[in-house]
Design the sequence.
């Protein structure tokens, strides 16, 4: 059953990535516009959750808030990347994040570093390098640098989660405070800074019902995917669940192709020529193999 949960979660994440790319390509190129509206929908869920879950307040709230605020900066970088890079390529960031987290665990928590992790990391970086060299021929190399920056900004978000879980914190309490800090930062900062406030409320995209519909679907799918992942980790082996998670680039590529086929006017940013797709699949397979080695090493 856990396989079904995680496959559904990864599929939902694939749809989310594609829809975010559609928002940036067809509605408004400024990240804060979509981010603020998605944060508004998130708050409609998080505020009632406060009363339902009654999350505990402890020392951990401070690192949660710090990590959530950095994730807000990470989301800005993510949307900037979606505006400049193929949506499937942006998944390189989450690939790099897995390696960065393994390195952080080795350096900060004295976790063991095995030969499998070294081999896996080498495969990951090889796949990323091949893809980046090819992508650099058709898109700005500077844009590709957004991806390691995105991964770096999200390290605290996931690192703090791992530490809190190891210390017996409730998973729903952890996610609540992290998400409240991230979504709250998006919501509040956009209201405080005049330039951002004008961007949000002056955007022509706000007049289109489809814009609000897509943002609502993104947030609904986000919470559904997060819950399915929790169920998968509770029911299945951690390493195998993590391996299935690494299949996300394939789902993104498939959904991008489906969007181009059935909704060409609203297709995401994605080059789908035969050469492009072949190279992406090859590199994704190399990266997937590397991440599988890293997952099995734990």
Sequence:
């Amino acid at each position: 059953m856990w396989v079904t949960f995680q496959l559904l979660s990864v599929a939902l994440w694939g749809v989310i990535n594609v829809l975010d790319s559609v928002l940036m390509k067809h509605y408004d190129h400024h990240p804060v516009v979509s981010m603020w509206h998605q944060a508004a929908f998130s708050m409609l869920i998080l505020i009632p959750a406060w009363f339902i879950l009654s999350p505990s307040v402890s020392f951990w709230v401070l690192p949660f808030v710090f990590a959530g605020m950095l994730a807000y900066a990470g989301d800005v970088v993510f949307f900037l990347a979606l505006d400049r890079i193929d949506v499937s390529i942006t998944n390189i960031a989450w690939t790099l994040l897995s390696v960065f987290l393994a390195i952080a665990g080795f350096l900060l928590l004295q976790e063991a570093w095995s030969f499998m992790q070294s081999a896996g990391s080498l495969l990951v970086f090889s796949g990323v390098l091949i893809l980046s060299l090819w992508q650099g021929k058709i898109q700005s190399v500077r844009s590709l640098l957004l991806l390691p920056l995105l991964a770096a900004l999200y390290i605290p978000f996931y690192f703090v989660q791992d530490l809190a879980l190891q210390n017996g914190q409730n998973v729903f309490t952890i996610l609540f405070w992290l998400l409240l800090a991230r979504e709250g930062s998006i919501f509040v900062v956009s209201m405080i800074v005049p330039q951002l406030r004008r961007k949000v409320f002056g955007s022509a995209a706000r007049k289109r019902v489809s814009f609000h519909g897509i943002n609502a679907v993104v947030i609904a799918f986000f919470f559904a995917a997060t819950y399915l992942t929790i169920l998968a980790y509770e029911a299945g082996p951690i390493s195998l669940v993590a391996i299935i998670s690494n299949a996300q680039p394939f789902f993104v590529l498939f959904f991008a192709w489906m969007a181009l086929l059935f909704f060409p006017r609203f297709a995401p940013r994605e080059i789908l020529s035969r050469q492009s797709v072949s190279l992406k699949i090859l590199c994704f397979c190399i990266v997937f193999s590397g991440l599988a080695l890293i997952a099995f090493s734990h």
